[in-house]
Specification:
The protein is an alpha/beta fold. The chain contains eleven helices and ten strands. Strands 5, 6, 7, 8, 9 and 10 form a six-stranded mixed beta sheet that branches. Strands 2-1-3-4 form a four-stranded parallel beta sheet, sandwiched between helices. It is globular and about 60 Å long. The two termini are about 35 Å apart. The N terminus is likely disordered.
């Protein structure tokens, strides 16, 4: 699926609304019950695919000068041991800290193609929506890894695919398997518990209830919420994100509100004041019962190696007695 910047958000501002425009609409996937047998089978099939792709990569030259402007994939490169091959990163790449030592080459909206070419890359990782830039690189015979994010399963597939493409299939399989194992643990801990109806917010104007953006019924945020033991109040909306009015939230009447922010300027005092903003809607069960949570960190909106960590944090907010 293609999106301009979200919900793999890259701005540092607490208001995320500009990043949510242009989201594609996809059919909703049916809910399934994933067993340990299913996980083992998927892992086996994924490993076979990785071996096949790895064989193809070894026949080619392993990329040694990689430029990535996709935050989740930049993080993945370092997690699977391909960090030494990375020679350029995006303007909003922040994790791990080592990315600060690499040249910045712009982002989704403003890629600096002149600088990218100057780095002499043999692999460039771009968003699938950056067709003009992909065409420029293709004409210059520079290989491109085109990224389109989806749900949890898609994230794991991309990790494995990127590992195979960069010569780190074994390390990528380890990272993906660890994520799967931790997600299975989260699901096991929350299984059988009452599932609260949850509003999962990832953007709004600071100190107000304007321009609120929440997870719809598709994408990794929705999948994370369901894996964490919650039911998305907007699961029937076939989009990654939904722009909401106060009236829509009143009608949805969530039991829990979880708000995600990656603003590194957020302090404990700011956090308390932002939570208090929801008191303007006192009739909502989540507000009335004191179940409004503000979770900090870009791991919640960057679907990469810390995805299971983020899912566990959401589960802890919903089911604290399960941990």
């Amino acid at each position: 699926m293609r999106t301009r910047a979200g919900p793999c958000l890259t701005s540092r501002s607490f208001s995320h609304s500009p990043a949510t425009r242009g989201l594609a609409i996809f059919p909703r996937r049916p809910k399934t019950c994933v067993t340990r047998h299913d996980v083992a089978l998927r892992r086996c099939l994924a490993a076979c695919l990785v071996l096949v792709v790895s064989a193809l990569v070894t026949a080619q030259q392993r990329p040694e000068r990689i430029v990535s402007i996709v935050p989740s994939l930049t993080e993945t490169l370092f997690a699977i041991g391909a960090g030494p091959q990375v020679v350029g990163v995006g303007s909003f790449d922040t994790h791990p800290e080592e990315v600060a030592t690499r040249p910045r080459v712009g982002g989704l909206i403003d890629p600096d193609m002149e600088r990218i070419f100057a780095l002499r890359p043999d692999l460039v990782i771009l968003h699938g929506s950056q067709q003009d830039q992909i065409q420029q690189l293709t004409r210059a015979a520079i290989p491109v890894f085109s990224y389109t994010h989806g749900g949890l399963a898609d994230t794991l597939s991309v990790i494995r695919e990127l590992g195979a493409r960069t010569g780190h299939a074994t390390e990528a399989e380890r990272v993906a398997s660890e994520i799967e194992e931790r997600l299975a643990d989260v699901r096991a801990r929350t299984a059988g518990r009452t599932r609260p109806r949850v509003l999962l917010v990832f953007g709004r104007e600071p100190r107000s209830l304007r321009n609120i953006y929440a997870s719809g019924g598709f994408g990794f945020l929705h999948d994370m919420l369901e894996a964490a033991g919650g039911d998305n109040v907007f699961a029937d909306v076939q989009r990654e994100s939904v722009q909401l009015t106060s009236e829509a939230i009143l009608t949805a009447a969530p039991d829990v509100i979880i708000e995600l922010t990656y603003d590194d300027r957020m302090t404990p005092d700011n956090q308390a004041s932002e939570i208090a903003v929801w008191n303007r809607l006192p009739v909502i069960p989540a507000v009335r019962n004191g179940r409004v949570h503000l979770l900090l960190g870009n791991q919640f909106v960057v679907p990469g190696p810390r995805l299971a960590e983020a899912t566990a944090a959401i589960a802890h907010a919903l089911h604290p007695d399960a941990f």
